[in-house]
What does this fold into?
Amino acid sequence: MENTFQKECGADAVYTESVCEYVLPDYQGDVKKILSAEAKVTPSGKFVGSSDVEFAGIVAYDILYADSEGKLTNASFTSDYEVSLPVSEDGYLDAAADTRVQNLSLRLSGPRKISAKCALTTRVSLRESGTLAVAGDAFEDGRAPEVREEPIRIRSRAFGNGGEREYADELAKLEGIPPEEIEVIAAGGGVTINHAEGVEGGVLLQGTVTFNAIVRSGNQPPFGIKKEIPFEEMIPIEGTAAHDSATAGARLTSVSTAVNADAEGGSVITVSGVAEYTATTDRNTELSVVTDAYLKEAESTAETRDFRYEEFLASTTEPVMLTGEYTPKEDEDALRDIFLTTAEIRVSDKSAEKNAVVVNGECTFHAVGCIVAEDGGISYGNTKFTTPFTATVKLPVSVPDGAKIECTLIPTDATAKLNGDTVEAECRAVCTLTVGEEKSIRILDALHAGAPYEDAGSETRITVCYPEPEDTLWSVAKRYHTSAAKVAIDNALTEEVMSRAGEVGSLSGVRKLMIE
It folds into this structure.
């Protein structure tokens, strides 16, 4: 006999590198000082083969630098990546991957060649079908063993890719400045998910798309502009029910800007970008596992094994705000008019606390701005500092000790301002938590038939049984080579006792049983 179920396979992280060299085009000046560097991943596809699944995408590098003439300039370039993971040829159902950048490093090979390198960490979640089969000849030749089954709650997951959504809006209106005097040096942004909820047929997302840009007007110092667009999107996932727990992720790609004249002689800067959404739903499904069996008419030998599984507890996607401040030392850049802030987050540990998970780590802020000399000359500098953080994310269930906690904390927007000489920064991030409990149950692996019992002919024998404290209806029936149902009926046991037939527990209140 066998039972098919869906199992979750949390694969180990797959590590690879992205290495890229970029030669500046002729129209850009030589690199004098690198002010900021970012690398972001954009997945492009999933390819399923006969024995593996491959994920591919691009790494987009954005470098902000001051050139040899002191001009603020942006350089953007990309490299491809791909990772693969072996999968079961027969049991594969679906897979999802999350690739993140770590340890970005840059090297200048002369003033016009930039060498970029970063580590990529890909965490893959697999859905596969599994089969619990009980082997042995006790199930052959028309035999019908007595079987004890117990229900367990096992995690079931589904992945949804909502595809792409394009957003566009007016970024800024600059009065009295013609378009030819305006330069958008760099543009980017992020997606903050404030709420993810399982509904019939999919996952409902609510949040904010944030666009930001660095703009220069004539000979004036550059300045930063930000635009937030609220959204509500539905990510379809077949079979999703309203009670399913949901988490989600998003990336903002293909950000572009345009500068056009308005009717009053000024300029309008417009921005557009594409958000790519993903969603995951989790629930528990009930699976009946065979924990014991025996033959009534013959001896039988059982073989057992431990079956390990995960029961889903809760998940959530929540916004988190991290803050930090820093006063530069005398030998560091004294910034004025900060126009770009980025943040990196590293999670060091996570722990359960009643109805919450406490996440600890470090947030590194990187602020870029103008430096004003005593003679009024403008140059550019940066400040980088790291601050510890503790974030508490509430959950609708009590989290047990030893629970399995999956956590990602992704920065989506960062800003900084000056309070005197002190840089005060904040980072908006999205925390995705999934909590489960790893369990184990002893199940039947095989049942082998032995010698048949002696036939008592037509003689009816009745035995009086006085249950021990550890006895169950099942154990008594097994001892006397009969069925739990027959013992219950012959002794007029209540439905409550009968419902405990397959459970480990006492026959409380039952002092004597007549076994025929």
